[in-house]
Amino acid sequence: MPNNLLDSAILTEITVNHYLILSAALFSIGMLGVLLRRNIIVLFMSIELMLNAVNISFVAFSHYLGKVDGQVMVFFVMTIAAAEAAVGLALAVSIFKRFKEVNIRFFEHLKG
Amino acid sequence: MNHEVLIAILLLSPLIGFLLNGVRFRSNNYLLAGSLATGAVTISFACAVALFIELLSLPPEQRRLAVSFFEWIAVDKFKVNAGFVVDQISSLMALIVTGIGALIHLFSIGYMHHDKGVTKYFAYLNFFLFNMLILILGDSLLTLFVGWEGVGLCSYLLIGFWFNDSAKAAAGMKAFITNRIGDAAFLIGIFILFISFGTVNLQELNTLAPTIAETGWLGAATLGTLMLFVGATGKSAQIPLYVWLPDAMAGPTPVSALIHAATMVTAGVYMIVRLNPLFVAAPNTMMIVAIIGATTAVLAATIGLTQTDIKKVLAYSTVSQLGYMFLAVGVGAFGAGLFHLMTHAFFKALMFLGAGSVIHAMHEEQDIRKMGGLRKYLPITHFTFVLGWLAIIGMPPFAGFFSKDEILWRAYSSPRGHILLWAAGVLGAALTAFYMTRLLALTFWGQSRIEKSLLSLDKKTHPRESPLVMTVPLMILGLLSVVGGWLGVPHIIGEVFGHIPNFLERWLSPLIKKLPENAVAVSTAEEWALMGLSTTLAAVSAFAAYIIYAKKTGVAEKMAKSLGPIYKAVDNKYFVDEAIFAGIINPLVQVSRNLWYYVDVNVVDKATYKITDLVRGGGFVARSLQNGNMQQYAMYVVLGIVVALSYMLVG
Fold first, then answer.
1. Strand segments (E) across B361-432
2. Rounded mean pLDDT of chain B?
3. Which whole number is the average pLDDT over B367-371?
């Protein structure tokens, strides 16, 4: 029964706090990426990271509370993220076409 | 049709005419504009006649048709309706205004046909009549005031109608500003009356008027009516606010006839007649009114003696005749005042239109020194002008004789009259006869002094009589100048011709309050004597003027020379304009200039500049926050979250 033992040991030791710490860590990494990187593609990846960090907390809470609401919310987040990526990448493409580079500072040209 | 509809059409018809002509004001089609405007006024006149007939069918005490279209102002106790009333006084006035207005509109078609702004002109003229009708029919001081201001506006627009000429534009402004001074006093008068009596409704004011005459100067009725009278001196060109009327002659001549002779300038007299019970309760006000009226009548007549512009003579004559009307209402002869208002409207409109016909024929020449002998070129104008002349100098049986004689008689016999007021009136009548004869002689009689350019050797080119559209109104007004006075034949003359009643007196009597004082005992012999005296004086004076100006040329210059400084003073209108400039306008301009230079530039402007600098500086700082760098924006968001979170966790 070592597998069972191992299982039970993990189950008893990994609590919701662990998930939240992981989620917070991922969110912070993503946030720093958004604030510091200048490449649009990387920025999108960082945003994706932040969204998924939130998804992790949703799923964790859903599991520990025994409700499916959190998981439903995750699907919404993923849908919106996909839509947002589509729009954002379209912008990135047109910026690239114009400036041959995907640096965030070119968006300043949209300033009125 | 019931009377509400009739009153509505009466009022709205000129307004619709104004709108129809106003929206197409660039049009040059004088015939369309003129017939639209004239038609609109004629409809009004028809309504006025219909209302008059309806009044006639009622018993004398119930002759009052009122209508209230909507509630205009309602603030606590202060309630004013857009209400209009047709009674003996206002129906008479409406008939005069719309009737003469229609004739003058008709005349204008001929007079203004070559003008570029003819459609605009007719629009203004119709708008004037609309406002005048509001003034006349309004049932409260406030509705009256709306019309009062409206006619002032139209007067301004029409005096400055040829505004490309800066002197004419300035004349318009002078009229407007002078009127404004009076209007301010008029408003104060309304305030005083409202505070004291709690209403601005004319009928209520008249019933609330104290039955016992006030003796002091500070009673509500005295103070209120005095202020209203100051407003009237502005609108009706009396001392001290008469200076604008002679300048108002800058407008087209039919405008002078309609606004500055027949209708608008009589608004002050009309207002006093409407409020006569209130004025009767304020003997001191009435004394002032009578004195101002008599003084103006004489003073303006003397200035009229020396003027050389055909319209200016008529303008001073108008000021003088308005003085007579104020003299009449000042001595309590309200009916006589209204009577003279009516006859004066006939003959003065006639004379102004006649002058217009002369000016038209003379190609805009207005100087009577360059006229003379026009009788053979302008027979109809001459004939009708003579009728007006006979009326204004008071020859029986022409219109002016009856009204002027009644005023003079009442100035003498009324308990509030005085022999000095009568004497001033007689003097004014003699002067009037003199300058009017002078005007007629210099214009139509004697030798021709017409400039060569208007005549040719073969005598084919010469001033020509005006077209029918201009002479027909002259003829109608000429007829009215003859028969208009027969409505108010005095009793002593009526007796002689088999009990001719004084129609006008009987018509107005329910609305005219009798003076509380006992009548002064006078005999009919006295009345005959005074009537004979004033008429004889006027005739002698007229004959003298005829000799001097039509027969013996050169006498006038000698007389002017022998009078020396007196002549100079009169010729320069007693230097009143100069005195006003030196005493009021120039100091005011100086003070304003100093205020501008020291206060406005140094204090007000500087303060505002400081504030704008502050705002601009703030904006400069705030602008650096919004620099288009998205990551910086994201940073603000994050910083915000950090602040909010730390507040929640720590605090």
1. none
2. 90
3. 87
Q: Which of B630, B634, B638 sits opposite A107 (nearest CB)?
A: B630
Over residues B247-289, the pLDDT tens digits come to 999 999 999 999 999 999 999 999 999 999 999 999 999 999 9
Tens digits of per-residue pLDDT, B319-358?
999 999 999 999 999 999 999 999 999 999 999 999 999 9
pLDDT per position as a tens digit, B444-499: 988 888 877 777 655 667 788 888 989 999 999 999 999 988 988 888 888 888 77
Question: Two tokens at B402?
Answer: 């009856």
d(CA B292, CA B331): 12
**Touching check for A110 and chain B: CB below 8 Å?**
yes
Integer Cα distance of B153 and B180 in angstroms: 10
Residue whose C-alpha is closest to residue B104's, from B248, B267, B263: B263
Q: Which residue of B has its CA nearest to A106?
A: B629
- The region that residue B507 occupies, defined by phi over 0 for left and psi between -120 and 50 for alpha, beta otherwise, is alpha
Alpha carbon distance A84, A87 (integer Å): 5
Tokens of B473: 């109104």
Q: What are phi and psi of B385, to 5 degrees?
A: -65, -35
Contacts of B61 (CB under 8 A, 6+ apart): B510
Residue of A nearest to B639 (CA): A35
Higher pLDDT, B62 or B12: B12
Rounded distance, CA B132 to CA B101, Å? 10
A54 contact residues in B (CB cutoff 8 A): none
From chain A, pick out residues whose CB is under 8 angstroms from the CB of B628.
107-108, 110-111
> Could you tell me if B162 and B170 are in contact, meaning their C-beta atoms sit under 8 angstroms apart?
no
Dist. CA B385–CA B281, nearest whole Å: 41
Q: How many CB atoms lie within 10 A of CB B90?
A: 27
ipTM here: 0.77
Q: Going by C-beta distance under 8 Å and a sequence separation of 6 or more, which residues neighbour residue B29?
A: B119
The alpha helices in B160-216, defined as continuous H runs, are 166-197, 202-208
Q: How far is A105 from chain B (nearest CA, A)?
A: 7
The single-letter DSSP state of residue B406 is H
Please tell me which of the candidates A35, A104, A105 has its beta carbon nearest to residue B638. A35
Residue A9 CB: number of other CB atoms within 10 A?
10
Q: pLDDT tens for residues A20-37?
A: 999 999 999 999 999 999
**Predicted TM-score of the model (pTM):** 0.80
Unique residue bearing structure tokens 């993923």: A78
- How many Cβ atoms from other residues are within 10 Å of residue B588's Cβ? 11
Q: Which helix (H) or strand (E) holds B81?
A: strand B78-87
Q: Judge contact between B121 and B21, C-beta under 8 A.
A: no
Strand partners, B201: B140
**CA-wise closest residue to B435 among B497, B368, B366:** B368
The two tokens of residue B391 are 């009326």
pLDDT digits (tens, 9 = 90+) for B557-614: 788 788 878 888 888 888 888 888 888 889 999 999 999 989 999 999 999 999 999 9
Assess contact for B392 and B324: CB atoms under 8 A.
no
